[in-house]
Design goal:
4 helices; 5 strands
């Protein structure tokens, strides 16, 4: 089984919305909001949403961002993989593995020295999946929910 990976464009928004809603059984994002979000994403250099197709049928999606860093001697880039999802009816058939391997290849070709991702603590199967592809837990992931009126000391 070979999948075809393509960069999503504005015409793909209804499809992306359907794929994201299927990921966790959530309702789709309202069309106006979706268009605003996509317009903002397209303004960010080296940030793309990809759609995976099997026999011309969409079966999954992921987002990939390349960012430069000065943390090590010389110039380096790293990749951030996000929003990996396979339609529920096709899970467990190797599509996710092919998508992540494609993301790894794209990132290496872009000159990235590492790829990072974050996964919810409750997603044990996802953790096993990523580990099977060579990812290892490295440190901790933290988040801070921000409010516009919040004051920082």
């Amino acid at each position: 089984m070979n999948i075809d990976i393509r960069i999503a464009n504005r015409e793909d928004l209804p499809l992306l919305n359907q794929l994201y809603a299927d990921m966790d059984g959530q309702p789709p994002i309202p069309k106006d909001d979706l268009e605003k979000i996509f317009a903002e994403i397209t303004q960010i250099p080296n940030y793309h949403i990809y759609i995976a197709y099997l026999n011309e049928q969409p079966v999954g999606t992921f987002s990939l961002l390349y960012a430069p860093t000065m943390m090590h001697q010389g110039y380096h880039k790293f990749a951030v993989l996000d929003s990996v999802t396979v339609i529920s009816s096709m899970r467990g058939q190797g599509i996710g593995s092919q998508m992540v391997k494609a993301a790894l290849k794209l990132s290496a070709e872009a000159g990235c020295y590492k790829m990072m991702l974050s996964s919810n603590l409750k997603r044990d199967r996802a953790h096993q999946f990523y580990q099977s592809l060579g990812f290892e837990q490295h440190g901790w992931s933290f988040k801070c929910i921000l409010q516009p009126t919040q004051h920082f000391v």
